[in-house]
Amino acid sequence: MKSLYVKDIRAGEKIKASFLVMEKNLAYSQKGAPYLSVRLRDKTGDIEARVWDNVAALDPGFRKGDIVYVQGRAVSYRDATQLAVLDIRKMEDTELDPWDYFPTTKGNVEEMFAALSDYARSVENPWLKTLLENFLGDGELAARLKRAPAAKGFHHAYLGGLLEHTLSMVRILDFLARHYPTVSRDMLIVGGILHDIGKIEEFTYDRAIDYTTPGRLLGHIYIGVEMLDRRIAAIEGFPMDLALELKHVVLAHHGELDFGSPKRPKTVEALIVHFVDDLDAKVMAFQEFIGNSGGEDAEWTLFHRFFERFLYKGKAGA
Amino acid sequence: MKSLYVKDIRAGEKIKASFLVMEKNLAYSQKGAPYLSVRLRDKTGDIEARVWDNVAALDPGFRKGDIVYVQGRAVSYRDATQLAVLDIRKMEDTELDPWDYFPTTKGNVEEMFAALSDYARSVENPWLKTLLENFLGDGELAARLKRAPAAKGFHHAYLGGLLEHTLSMVRILDFLARHYPTVSRDMLIVGGILHDIGKIEEFTYDRAIDYTTPGRLLGHIYIGVEMLDRRIAAIEGFPMDLALELKHVVLAHHGELDFGSPKRPKTVEALIVHFVDDLDAKVMAFQEFIGNSGGEDAEWTLFHRFFERFLYKGKAGA
Amino acid sequence: MKSLYVKDIRAGEKIKASFLVMEKNLAYSQKGAPYLSVRLRDKTGDIEARVWDNVAALDPGFRKGDIVYVQGRAVSYRDATQLAVLDIRKMEDTELDPWDYFPTTKGNVEEMFAALSDYARSVENPWLKTLLENFLGDGELAARLKRAPAAKGFHHAYLGGLLEHTLSMVRILDFLARHYPTVSRDMLIVGGILHDIGKIEEFTYDRAIDYTTPGRLLGHIYIGVEMLDRRIAAIEGFPMDLALELKHVVLAHHGELDFGSPKRPKTVEALIVHFVDDLDAKVMAFQEFIGNSGGEDAEWTLFHRFFERFLYKGKAGA
Amino acid sequence: MKSLYVKDIRAGEKIKASFLVMEKNLAYSQKGAPYLSVRLRDKTGDIEARVWDNVAALDPGFRKGDIVYVQGRAVSYRDATQLAVLDIRKMEDTELDPWDYFPTTKGNVEEMFAALSDYARSVENPWLKTLLENFLGDGELAARLKRAPAAKGFHHAYLGGLLEHTLSMVRILDFLARHYPTVSRDMLIVGGILHDIGKIEEFTYDRAIDYTTPGRLLGHIYIGVEMLDRRIAAIEGFPMDLALELKHVVLAHHGELDFGSPKRPKTVEALIVHFVDDLDAKVMAFQEFIGNSGGEDAEWTLFHRFFERFLYKGKAGA
Amino acid sequence: MKSLYVKDIRAGEKIKASFLVMEKNLAYSQKGAPYLSVRLRDKTGDIEARVWDNVAALDPGFRKGDIVYVQGRAVSYRDATQLAVLDIRKMEDTELDPWDYFPTTKGNVEEMFAALSDYARSVENPWLKTLLENFLGDGELAARLKRAPAAKGFHHAYLGGLLEHTLSMVRILDFLARHYPTVSRDMLIVGGILHDIGKIEEFTYDRAIDYTTPGRLLGHIYIGVEMLDRRIAAIEGFPMDLALELKHVVLAHHGELDFGSPKRPKTVEALIVHFVDDLDAKVMAFQEFIGNSGGEDAEWTLFHRFFERFLYKGKAGA
Amino acid sequence: MKSLYVKDIRAGEKIKASFLVMEKNLAYSQKGAPYLSVRLRDKTGDIEARVWDNVAALDPGFRKGDIVYVQGRAVSYRDATQLAVLDIRKMEDTELDPWDYFPTTKGNVEEMFAALSDYARSVENPWLKTLLENFLGDGELAARLKRAPAAKGFHHAYLGGLLEHTLSMVRILDFLARHYPTVSRDMLIVGGILHDIGKIEEFTYDRAIDYTTPGRLLGHIYIGVEMLDRRIAAIEGFPMDLALELKHVVLAHHGELDFGSPKRPKTVEALIVHFVDDLDAKVMAFQEFIGNSGGEDAEWTLFHRFFERFLYKGKAGA
Question: Residue C49 is inside which H or E element, if any?
């Protein structure tokens, strides 16, 4: 349990606390004397830190991505609070809980998982329902689903993000199943719940959010369909056609070859799952970027590299 | 009022009735003798016709796109009914009602318009509400909105299609406004109602569905924003920022420059309107193409040129 | 066993023989009288046929893709031989051997399979060797591999084409393993043998070469990796890293997302397998197209749609 | 009126003068002591400045884009002159004339505007002539047209640049009207004068050249056609067809959807205006880049990011 | 010398005259009896012809692209005049003058060549002037330049088209050299005259306009620079830098790699030559397509495949 | 002859030796005092150097790309050895041998050239054989071929790289000539040897590897075919068709217009040379990047900008 959080640090105080190292750079003075410029964070925010002394001894003791125990003093510098570090060292894994250090979903993970499970139970086709029980009832898989992020980058890139994104999609899909009455609600719900399931193995999210080797070599789309194939194979009598359609929904959910789907949607259900995935991801990315964009009097955000545009924040007070 | 519809024609009967000419081709026999191969339709279906005699006299009297009065006999040919035409001539415009000849929405136009008007009344911002009243309360514009198709091509390409597509979108947008509570419901509803309003001038749909000259030179996106600009200018005191955001939603609703939007979405509302437009159009296009694809034992449709793929109809009985 | 082959038909003879229907079209005379224009083939070539009489009765009895039993007479027409058909009917499946009707590889299938098996036995890594034995030693799979085409279109699009293409690739890969000594020969050989294995389920090739439903919904790349995954799972102790690298080779063998690989090559072995696949397919496509392009005095082929160019045949006699 | 220009600053002098802040960065010394690195300019050139002392007090008093009043001393540093700043503060808007601080066209603005007006008077069609009088005779619009830049980036990106670019285009269009005698000279001249008129609202150029919010949400193409539409509406009896063709010329002048035109040129006049716009912009961009590229002995410029290439300056003395 | 031209044929007359065969197709009657459908032309227009009798004997005697001697009768058919052919045979090359059969420039070839030569003489740089004399003073080359088309397709695709296009470009370039005074007029003029010189070997235009084998294997861009290289090599002392810049202008004149230039323009002269080439080709293509588009009451042309759009012809009478 | 190589430098020693300057940057201390940060190299490796004193005097005396004579002391800094420079000056060209300073092929240049010459002698067509003798027997050309790099960037970008790449390709082509027996071995071998011959003039590689002016204005593809054209012209009687095919192979060897080939491969030999060039370049680029990627415990390389991906190095010890 952390003793002190970033949001509670006040200039002038002595600090003894643990943080995650987001950035670590060695800089040089005129005569070549090095100092360390470090950015630390926990779930409540982030803070700059500097190691001016004893650099050669402290530098080898921690790396970007480590969780470190820091001793020093909070100082005020240019309207911000900064840490002047006296000692900094990597903590043992056993001492810590990742939820303390990473940004996390604002939703309640257990409630979200329960809501998702309710949708799973509402599926009528018995084979699909059994398959979902098989997935969501698997304790280890459920634990990973509750923790995984939806991406490494800027949208839902936090613990619990995958679950939050999945549940948001399923709610929209449930509405669309009523809106377009001839489409298969079962296929939409199951497709929504499982389309990104491969991400629990595509990412590592114990220490830092990054790609795993299977994630880079195979990708979450393939991994997800393979997970489906193995669990379907374990359900005796599962209809081949149903398996085929469901695999297609997952395989095609990126919509275009260019975005990594080896097949494009060829059923209306695959088309809808693709659209809702894209919609929810981009709406969240817009909202996060606008929300994180400071400068309360500016109408525009900084340039968004992925969207290749500036986003409009609107008139102040509007 | 038409006296006889395609779906009621029986082989062996004498026929006197009016139809729309969908296709008209001159074909030649071995020695150069011509005959006319014609495809006729009304709102209930279409039928092949042949003019074997008196071709030189009848040919100049009608063209593709005309509504014609036909006399002849229905004959049975290869399991289908065909018309052997004795006389065929173009009708005067005053004699006919286009709703008899074109495919039309299956929805009830007046009910759909009333539902759309209810959404318009639910808008809270008084300026936007006034603007919508201005549009929907304009009898001539309302009449055109009720009749216009949403496209020339394969999705919603029938009378009333634009209204049907617009209402479908607004219903989804209304849901999404609740789902994403920080977005502006008003902007979504107004954007949804007006995003395609330029189509009532982009298309001609009295005689046949085709592009108008303004439609080809300016396009419905520009035309729609110009319509907005004129009506906003007529509302004294309409806030400039609000006008700007709304124009942006309409201008950006195709999402990408490549698809004809001169600006891409830069607000979350513009993004959502774009997505829902694209989703509803493509879902409908899939469903129409699968629905129109005969051959009840085949699992696959013909090749869809726009989507560049075959669509999966599923196992028979599934 | 067929009684008569296309290459042996002589004008003036009465014909009783079986053929595959490549094309079937209904054409009309001036007064609407129909006749059937049919293209027939067997493994030795193809021939035009016409059904002038009794069309209404014979037409429903066969379709494109059927193998039919034909009675009629060979006639000479414009320097070519044509069949005037008196009777034509679909044959029962039990009566026929597809190798009689389809174009087939010029290679000896058993010899090619034996050569491929020799390469499989030369693999040194025991896990990979076991895996190959598992595949090639499976009689049903081996039978399909011997018969499958490599494509529906113009290169290796004949029975045995997949085996021919696979063996050709493996020979080149074997050379390149010696040429680039630091790459893994084992991975090249196994990747070469298995990269297209999913094609045996992507295509149907009993009646006509076409895509199966799994082929269209999932594609041979996914199907192939799934086949790998299932057989690897059955080998106790198979190293995960090795499985991962091999799956990557198969998944990435189209080289680019645009061509259907959800991941691009990230190992040198995956890169080489991709290149050799592309090279062998295109060299064969060039050679088949130039070889099939008649007109012995022309320097250029017709326009090749896939390559979007004319190919140069060179000076006559050169 | 400015008292001292950059080009007249000599090392060793005390400086009291006003400049525009082009760049402002806070840098840090080894121990974290900050200094300000500033780049200042006026219409005659630019100069580096450093604030070594009193940083915390001076820093909040000005920003990039401000015009500031500076006191300090010019010092010589590495063959260049630099300002050591003692005091620096933002000036009130009322004190200054933007033409003193921004780069400006080398042409005489009034002469260029007079020349453009002559072309406007040479238009024969009375409606188009009236429309041009309406635009150019509007004092406020004329004032903005004289001041606006043609771009934010590297070509004509200076005060008066839009007028210079417009006049250059009109001269070429006048020639082409004689060269291609069947095209409409009137449409070319009017199209040339008005094609970029929306830029006077797309950019802000009082303080710094940047995009306005309407510029980013709607773009100069839409804004320009809207300006046309409003002024045409005010001319009673203006022919609809003529308005349509002219709007098309402006709407289509970027030539391709990808470059922001929602419609591509469909008349020869729209095609020519597009080409001449592109030609004049790129010729000027080449010439400015080559001209600004120092290093008198080098044959090549630096890499040009927009053109994605190095440009050839030729042999010295050639 | 031709005895009769298409424009002078009247229904009812007996015809004995020579024409170029544009299209030749064999069609079939119901019972398989063939007839020939032929389109003939000379420089004044084109006409349909039919061979109803003696088909087997006449068919082998001529091919598409041949110039044929025809005997028959002009008949009136559906408001058009058609030839009923009794005899048709290929003519010997020695009997005919291609200018009688192909469409040709409306300009006077000798006057155009003289005008081009005047521009060549106006070049000031002595090396470039000598080079142009070398080209234009070569009688055989001049003869080919006077006859070559500028393209196989729809713009300037007629005898003399290359010269017409070249002269039109040089006139524009001459104007632009005055308009942009710092560019090299000499380089523009020489670049304009020689940029497409490789086309005289890229096309064959004695019998029909088509690509030559060098045209397809190397293309006119490479061929043109090779022609330059050989003639420059023959001028002792020609400066290397000058040769390099000129070769670059020709090599880069298609502007983009995608359009076949292996290098993009890196000098302002290369940029301008590219633009003017593109402008003149497209303006002419627009004008030819609109001019050839019949239907005097229609506002729009047919769909233009190269431009992928309909072109606007304007209101009738406008 | 160099007296000391990078790999032999030890901390604490005084240094007097020559190196190539790879990077040179001026950095500033807090008060504006400059120092030089320099990266030096020779064929054995590279080392950091700092000039702390006497900067103003030493700075003008050398530039990036120069070979310099350095006096100073090797010091240990952060586990690495660095040079503290007292004096540094550019050396005269006459004093040095470029092979001492650049990275070079690991192969033996003379042996590689001899092997290439053996392949040249194995060509059977006498004209092609003579042509190759003409090229390889030209001492100056041979000397440049032995020294030239294959690229400026990351693959084969070292002295001798072009020869190494060429020989590697010819060996593969020799194998493929046996593998595909109907292709022309002669054309493959000659195409392989000469396809990149223009690179000896595209690059400068005496001082640093960079593009020449002809390299940037014309490119190695054009330059190479021009070299062919000149040498073929000098061989009396060389068959035109053979020249044409060979030029096509060189012109088309980049495979696509986008990659700088003005024509795409239209013969099977041109296709194969293109593929083998691409394969050998990319295999080498993968292997170099993986080989240069330090961090022996990491499974993945850094991001590769050209390939736009991370490359997989595999499990340690695998």
Answer: strand C45-51
C318 touches chain F (CB under 8 A): yes
Q: Does B179 touch chain A (CB under 8 A)?
A: yes
* E213 has a chain C CB within 8 A of its CB: yes
Using DSSP bridges, classify how beta strands C203-204 and C210-211 pair: parallel, antiparallel or unpaired.
antiparallel
Say what the pLDDT of residue E30 is. 46
Condensed to tens digits (0 to 9), the pLDDT of residues D174-195 reads: 999 999 999 999 999 999 999 9
Mean pLDDT of chain A: 89
Given a contact cutoff of 8 angstroms between Cβ atoms, the answer to whether A232 and A259 are in contact is no
Residue D6, classed as helix, strand or coil, is helix
Report DSSP state, residue F72.
E
Q: Do A260 and C263 touch (CB under 8 A)?
A: yes
Annotate B10-46 with three-state secondary structure. CCCCEEEEEEEEEEEEEEECCCCCEEEEEEEEECCEE
Amino acid of residue D15:
I
- Amino acid identity for residue D189 in this structure: I
pLDDT band with cut points at 50, 70 and 90 for residue F316 = very low
ipTM, two decimals, is 0.86
Please report the DSSP string for chain E in residue order: --S--GGG--TT-EEEEEEEEEEEEEEE-TTS-EEEEEEEEETTEEEEEEE-SSHHHHGGG--TT-EEEEEEEEEEETTEEEEEEEEEEEPPGGG--GGGTS-B-SS-HHHHHHHHHHHHHT--SHHHHHHHHHHHT-HHHHHHHHH--S-SSSSS-SBTHHHHHHHHHHHHHHHHHHHSTTS-HHHHHHHHHHTTTTHHHHEE-SSS-EE-HHHHHTHHHHHHHHHHHHHHHTSTT--HHHHHHHHHHHHTTT-SGGGT-SS---SHHHHHHHHHHHHHHHHHHHHHHHHH---TT-SEEEEETTTTEEEE--STT-
Closest Cβ–Cβ partner in C248, C268, C315 for F287: C268
d(CA E91, CA B313): 59
Min Cα–Cα distance to chain D from F105, Å: 29
pLDDT recorded at residue D294: 64
Residues in chain F: 318
Task: Detail the DSSP E strand segments found in chain A.
Answer: 14-28, 34-42, 45-51, 67-77, 80-90, 203-204, 210-211, 300-304, 309-312
Site of tokens 């210079």: D164
Q: Could you give the CA distance from residue D278 to residue D255 in angstroms, rounded to a whole number?
A: 9
Torsions phi, psi for D84 (to 5 deg): -95, 115
Q: What 3-state class would DSSP assign to F53?
A: coil
Cβ-defined contact of C216 to B310 (cutoff 8 Å): yes
How many C-beta atoms surround the C-beta of residue F67 within 10 A?
A: 24
pTM over 0.90, yes/no: no
User: Which 3 state secondary structure label does DSSP give D203?
Assistant: strand
Task: Give CA torsion, residues C125, C131, C133, C134, to 10 deg.
Answer: 160
Residue pLDDT, tens place only, A249-295: 999 999 999 999 999 999 999 999 999 999 999 999 999 888 877 65
F3 and chain D in contact, CB less than 8 A: no
Query: Taking a C-beta distance cutoff of 8 angstroms, is the pair F241, E291 a contact?
Result: no
Query: Rounded to an integer, what distance in angstroms lies between the CA atom of residue C295 and that of residue C293?
Result: 7
Token output for D130: 């009236």
Secondary structure class of F44 (helix, strand, coil): coil
pLDDT at B316: 47
Positive or negative, the CA dihedral D210, D212, D217, D219 is negative
Give the closest residue to B271 by CA, choosing from B291, B298, B252: B252
Supply F142's token pair.
């041979």
Spatial contact of D130 and D121, defined as CB atoms under 8 Å apart: no
For C10, the 3-state DSSP assignment is: coil
User: CB neighbours of D58 closer than 8 A, spacing ≥ 6?
Assistant: D36, D51, D85, D87, D88, D89
